[in-house]
Amino acid sequence: MTTTASQEAFLQAFHAEYPAVTAEAFGRGHAPDGRSSYEILCDRVAGSMRVLDLGCGDGLLLEFLARRSGRQLAGVDLSPHSLALARRRPALSEAKLEEGRAQELPFADDSFDACVSHMALMLMSEIEQVASEVARVLSPGGVLACVVGGGAVGGEAYERFLALLRCTIEETPASQRIPALGDKRTRSREGLDEVLGPAGFTAVDWETVPIDLSAPGEQVWAAVSSLYDLGPLDRATLDRLREAFFAEVRDMTTSEGHVPCAFKIHLATARLR
Ligand SMILES: C[S@@+](CC[C@H](N)C(=O)[O-])C[C@H]1O[C@@H](n2cnc3c(N)ncnc32)[C@H](O)[C@@H]1O
């Protein structure tokens, strides 16, 4: 199997088991202005009527987009299980939801005014091919707006969880490690410019926003433990990680049992020339 094929096989298998994992973990997170990362992204394409969601998962972002009436919506994802959940959303009954790869979009040239992607672009390999496909299906002047993960804010539970996870993975046999996913250039403004510029996009507008996920401990654990890296870990390793996590955040847990937790998102927007 090629590297790309094994990455995509991993993603498909993971989402067969956890088809709504991202929306469940991060949908309730909120920025300082109270909006979720999904709503922030939705607002970035407020004026666009034909919108494609790349790596749409279970369709939460598309549901926000559907609140504007008259919009033509489409989504593409590798995971048939996540798409099955998206198809169950009444607001998406008219949306074109296709199983497929962002590297070979099943849509005609000039089909969309905007393309959005929430926590998915950063997982995609052959990223130049994705950029050229997005440019093909967008109309001239169309917008690409993406949210990519930016790591921990610091001084809260997610930072401590990531440190524990790093140690756990180092001690874990290779058979329980996930393949390297995506292209790290999608995680920086300079990297994205390098990818998107040759496909015909303007320089990337880049904004970093903290997203608060503070909640009762069990809810914070559910969010942080939804990362792909935990998928292949065996039960005993998971139990040890969970125990270590709760010990690690004890000193920051409030008397009501709330644990401070936050992560950063990068919001990248570029326009097709
Ligand atoms: C972290 S999930 C995010 C799902 C959804 N956008 C959300 O934020 O709720 C990433 C999604 O991207 C999809 N994905 C990853 N690589 C893809 C590719 N090359 N083409 C299409 N979908 C892809 C995965 O199947 C998965 O559903």
TrEMBL record:
> Domain Methyltransferase type spans what residues?
52-146
- Full protein name: Methyltransferase type 11 domain-containing protein
Q: Which GO terms describe its molecular function?
A: S-adenosylmethionine-dependent methyltransferase activity
Organism whose genome encodes this protein: Streptomyces avermitilis
SUPFAM superfamilies in UniProt? S-adenosyl-L-methionine-dependent methyltransferases
Q: What is the lineage of its organism?
A: Bacteria, Bacillati, Actinomycetota, Actinomycetes, Kitasatosporales
Could you tell me which PANTHER family the record lists for this protein?
METHYLTRANSFERASE
- One matching Pfam family: Methyltransf_11
